[in-house]
Every structure is written in structure tokens, then in C-alpha cells.
Specification:
Shape: globular
CATH class: Alpha Beta
Distance between the termini: 27 Å
Largest sheet: 2 strands, parallel
Number of strands: 4
Order of helices and strands: HEHHEHEHHEH
């Protein structure tokens, strides 16, 4: 699962994992466990570049394991190595949400380092401008709106089925 903070990667990911009878893993939680501190603390102590390096390594390790539903951090898919690893080992699903939805959802929590300075709406809008073209490289794009989460999960399942059917129909390379 890829997308901006507040898109529903963890919430939808948990429900999707249950639906598919797969484990759910949140990359941010795994990164915090590996670092021994919260992401906000890591950002403060070491900066974003060091965080992204650790994030890349943790995601690569997770992708080497058994099938799972993996929620990545909002910036993870921006890293070319991570995108390549995901393309090689999994199916990327971009949960796309509009700005108002993202602002509303992210305002509920204060543990998002990139939103702690300045106006969160301006920051999210700027992130949308830079990240959406990269997120668009995902295998699947699903709208994440304010409807029931089960409807979003159903859209993801339908998109995964279509993706699988389409890729199985391709001739072997």
C-alpha cells in the first residue's frame, strides 16, 4: 500500500489483510522497532535522509519474507530502490485521496513529522504535487474516500483481481 499520510494505508491495509487471510505489516511500526524510537524522534535526532535509508532497508527485508499486506510510509515509494523492490516482489496499490480528506484525517494525530511545521494543508498540497506523479507508477490506483472502509477494501480486491487476470493473460517473457 502506497500513498500520502492519511490515505488509509494502515486502516485499509489491516482490513484487506483480514479479507485476504494474510498478515498485515506496517512499515512504520517495523522501522520504529528497528530504531528503538518513534519516527518523530528519529527524524528529530537523525534527519529525514537517515530515516529514508533505514526505511529502504526495512522494506527490502520485509519484501523478502512471506506474502503480506504491507503499508509503507508516505515517502517510501518515492525512493527508486524501494519502488523497484516492490515491483519485483509485490503489487503496489496507491490509495489516492483528495486534499480535504487527507487534511481531515491527518488532523486527528500529531505524530506526523512532515506536518509539524507550517500549515498542514499547504504541506499536504505540496506533497501531492511532488509525490502523485511517482505514486502514479503503482500497479493499481484505488480512490480512498470517506465512504465505509469496507467499500474501499472491496475496490482494492476488485482491482487486484483485475490486475492478476490481466497479468496472467500476458505471454511469458
Amino acid at each position: 500500500m502506497v500513498g500520502l499520510m492519511g490515505a488509509g494505508k494502515s486502516s485499509i491495509g489491516r482490513r484487506l489483510a483480514a479479507r485476504l487471510n494474510l498478515p498485515f505489516v506496517d512499515a512504520d511500526t517495523e522501522i520504529e522497532a528497528a530504531a528503538g524510537c518513534s519516527i518523530a524522534e528519529f527524524f528529530e535526532r537523525h534527519g529525514e535522509a537517515a530515516f529514508r535509508d533505514g526505511e529502504r532497508r526495512v522494506i527490502a527485508r520485509l519484501l523478502e519474507g512471506d506474502p503480506m499486506v504491507l503499508a509503507t510510509g508516505g515517502g517510501a515509494f518515492m525512493d527508486e530502490e524501494t519502488r523497484t523492490a516492490i515491483a519485483h516482489s509485490g503489487i503496489s496499490v496507491w490509495l489516492r485521496a483528495d486534499l480535504d480528506t487527507l487534511v481531515r484525517r491527518t488532523s486527528r494525530r500529531t505524530n506526523r513529522p512532515l506536518l509539524n511545521n507550517g500549515d498542514p494543508a499547504d504541506t499536504l498540497e505540496s506533497l501531492m504535487e511532488t509525490r502523485h506523479p511517482v505514486y502514479a507508477q503503482a500497479d493499481i490506483v484505488v480512490e480512498s474516500d470517506d465512504g465505509p472502509p469496507e467499500e474501499t477494501v472491496e475496490r482494492v480486491v476488485d482491482a487486484l483481481t483485475t490486475f492478476r487476470d490481466r497479468t496472467e493473460a500476458l505471454p511469458a517473457q
